[in-house]
Design brief:
By secondary structure, this protein is mainly β. Among the domains are: 126 residues, Immunoglobulin-like (Sandwich); 121 residues, Immunoglobulin-like, CATH 2.60.40.420. It has 2 helices and 32 strands. The longest helix has 5 residues. Helices cover 2% and strands 37% of the residues.
């Protein structure tokens, strides 16, 4: 199974190709407006689908099972936060102290990881590394200060290849103190699901055969035949309403395991942020594809200056591609409806050359305290294919050992012959310095998730400014569960958490 979100709106081992997604169910938010500060003091669009928006000093989340109606033919048993996929959106202001009271009503242990957000290590939500898994019926309280604005998400980090695939994810939006300077603000979560076994499914939640976590399935990405946006597919996806002259922000989040190439019809747009971090002087682009890898987020903005009905759609030729598209409708307009062009060949935005160049926090020629090369590969063992870092699988991979304050450079090389590896670092942002030996020529590129195609090489840098033991892993979570994980370990960090060697419930991969 797999998932996506359309609220304040926009989300393989052997074959990882381009795709697209959406999902929701639970609370009826059709009459709710989320008030936001904008240049025109307009209200935000009501939340689409049924995902609730949560704010305030104390937020309550509950993980539980339910059924998700993806389209008019397919209903799937899923895991949810607060009864919807994507789960409730947490929306807070920069500077606020966030307290999330989380209860587990699932039939198995779980935990929440705050993807992209530099929380303190004890709040990172990785069982066996930062905490014990939260058992069925138990409650755990997460707390952190929302210091850095941007688009983030949260998801299970317990048996994550299975639990995230069942829908266990939501979105986290941190608004800047001055408010968002837009008229409409949509969050769109992309995902993929399998329908083969579900077509004859009754109301029973037989999860065992419903997700791609089965070892017999895990390498066959073609089984994902339904792509969603906010947990819905095709005609079930609610349109995005706009008015002529408005500035519209789309927050695109990929919660799935495939990359998705999106095309915005009829409008030029700017990429204003990636992984929540702003880009310098973004320029308008049109009729180019935005490739969004697993774990990545892109915020784009456009001016609604072309009345009619247009599409934001996924390009590709996989079976589920046609379901990953959403209509953009101008209110009060009756112009002819836009037509799909998902097979058209269009250029893909090169984010390493996009925006205006300026010197970022780090440079290629400066002195680094720690340098680490990460060779991403594949191998075979007695259980089949595994995914390796420098020839080893976790927990036998060599960690990146640092002290607080160290400046760290990491070279990431994808030596896998066919597999794409979207690498995600917990607890830190890194700057992308070069791609295939060529320095980044666009805006300083600050990210926490980086997509690396076969044969590609990137150099990234960051400061070790958040003490702890942090995961650095592939966000095709099947690859992570099959070994492609290492740790960033602070030599001078003393954790208050000691894993119980007899507790077999901690499966933090």
């Amino acid at each position: 199974m797999k998932k996506l979100w359309l609220g304040t709106v926009l989300v393989g081992v052997i074959a990882l190709s381009a795709a697209c997604s959406n999902s929701m169910q639970g609370h009826d938010m059709s009459n709710m407006h989320t008030k936001k500060e904008t240049t025109s003091n307009k209200e935000n669009l009501p939340l689409a689908n049924d995902t609730e928006a949560l704010s305030g000093k104390e937020i309550h989340l509950t993980a539980k099972e339910t059924l998700l109606q993806i389209n008019d033919q397919v209903k799937l048993p899923v895991y949810t936060y607060n009864g919807s996929v994507p789960g409730a959106q947490i929306r807070v202001k920069q500077g606020e102290r966030v307290k999330i009271v989380f209860k587990n009503e699932l039939p198995e242990p779980t935990a929440i990881h705050w993807h992209g957000y530099p929380v303190s290590n004890d709040q990172d939500g990785v069982p066996g590394v930062t905490m014990d898994a939260i058992k069925p019926g138990e409650t755990f309280t997460y707390e952190f200060t929302a210091t850095i604005p941007g688009t983030y998400w949260y998801h299970s980090h317990q048996k994550s290849a299975e639990q995230v695939d069942k829908g266990l994810y939501g979105t986290l939006i941190v608004e800047p103190k001055e408010g968002e300077q837009v008229d409409r603000d949509y969050t769109l979560v992309l995902d993929e699901w399998m329908s083969q076994q579900q077509a004859s499914t009754t109301e029973q939640s037989n999860h065992t055969n419903m997700h791609h976590g089965n070892s017999s399935m895990m390498h066959d990405m073609s089984m994902y035949d339904i792509f969603t946006i906010n947990g819905k597919s095709g005609q079930a996806i609610e349109p995005l309403k706009v008015k002529k002259g408005e500035k519209v922000r789309l927050r695109l989040i990929n919660a799935g395991y495939m990359s998705h190439k999106l095309h915005l019809h009829g409008h030029s747009f700017k990429i204003v942020a990636t992984d929540g971090q702003p880009l310098n002087d973004p320029q308008p682009i049109k009729d180019e594809l935005l490739n969004i890898a697993p774990g990545e987020r892109y915020d784009i903005e456009f001016i609604a200056d072309n009345p009619g009905e247009w599409l934001l759609e996924c390009h590709g030729d996989m079976k589920g591609t046609d379901g990953m598209k959403v209509n953009i409708q101008y209110e009060g307009q009756t112009n002819k409806t836009d037509k799909t062009n998902a097979k058209e060949t269009l250029p893909i935005v090169d984010i390493t050359t996009y925006g205006k160049y300026k010197t970022g926090p780090f440079t290629l020629d400066q002195t680094y305290d720690v340098e680490y090369t990460m060779d991403l590969g594949t191998a075979m063992d007695k259980n089949g294919m595994v995914f390796t870092i420098n020839g080893k699988t976790y927990p036998n991979t060599a960690p990146i050992n640092v002290k607080k304050g160290d400046i760290v450079k990491v070279k990431l090389v994808n030596s896998s012959p066919m597999d794409v590896h979207p690498m995600h670092l917990h607890g830190h942002f890194f700057q992308v310095l070069s791609k295939n030996g060529k320095p980044v020529t666009g805006s300083p590129l600050i990210k926490d998730s980086l997509n690396i195609n076969p044969g590609e090489e990137y150099v990234v840098a960051f400061q070790a400014d958040n003490p702890g033991n942090w995961m650095f892993h592939c966000h095709d979570l099947h690859h992570a569960s099959a070994g492609m994980v290492t740790e960033l370990k602070y030599k001078d960090y003393k954790s208050s958490y000691t894993p119980d060697p007899n507790d077999t419930t901690n499966k933090g991969e």
